[in-house]
Amino acid sequence: MTGRPTGPERGEGPPACAVPAHLRPRWRHLPLLAAVLAQAFAPPGARGRRLGYAFVPFWLVQIALSHGRGQVLAIGPATVTVIQPTTPGRRLAVSCAALPAAVLALCAAMLPVAAAGALVADLAAGPKWCAVGADAGLAVCAGLLVWQLAALARAALRATQLHRVLRPLQHRGGRWAEVGSLAGGRDAHATRTLARELLTWADEHRIGLAAVAATDRLARLYARAGFRPAHPGSAVLLRKPEAPGTPAGRLGAASGPAPRKQR
């Protein structure tokens, strides 16, 4: 969610609402949240394994950029991002402005790996192999990055579908926000609490929520919270705000314990 009031956008209906300040994590909490996201959204072959932690630098960059724009909410290790839609031109400008920072951060994350590769090569084969070890370390980092981006390519296609669904809803004067990157690690209670807080905020401000579930398990989780397909067979899920006085936060409340991991 964009955590700052933005004012009305041309053709986008009512202005956005600021999210609860107590749900915004501190910068020092971002490494923990990045580790949770890496385990939840790493490539399928790495999820739930130690290899998943190799993708923490990538997710640390992503969550830091989102946090800087006020889009990250968290309770303990549970985290979610919510983006209140803006005009395509504004979103593109923000993305272009953030790209240099993302590239620099990723390069900084690669340097220790390259240094470790050079050190191992030096100890194992002598100083003349340091450059080869450094190059090998960089190649591993680049391979992991490409693997992660390939795993997210499908999500990017679904995000395009989400934008197409939201555009007419916004033009009708509705207030909508995109929900994504919901993950809670093993703390089911924190995940349920964060979901209740999010749904309560959306209902109080009459904000509809839209999401694209990354997994079938997450789709079931959204369904328990009142999300429904935009149309039969659609990957885009919508939740209209509940009427005042209707209990919010059904996510995980009426269905027993939540899954150990939300992805």
Automatic annotation (TrEMBL):
TM stretches of this protein: 92-116, 136-157
Keywords for this protein: Membrane, Transmembrane, Transmembrane helix
Domain of life (superkingdom): Bacteria
Keyword Transmembrane: yes
Region Disordered, annotated ranges: 235-263
Name of the protein in its database record: N-acetyltransferase domain-containing protein
Lineage: Bacteria, Bacillati, Actinomycetota, Actinomycetes, Kitasatosporales
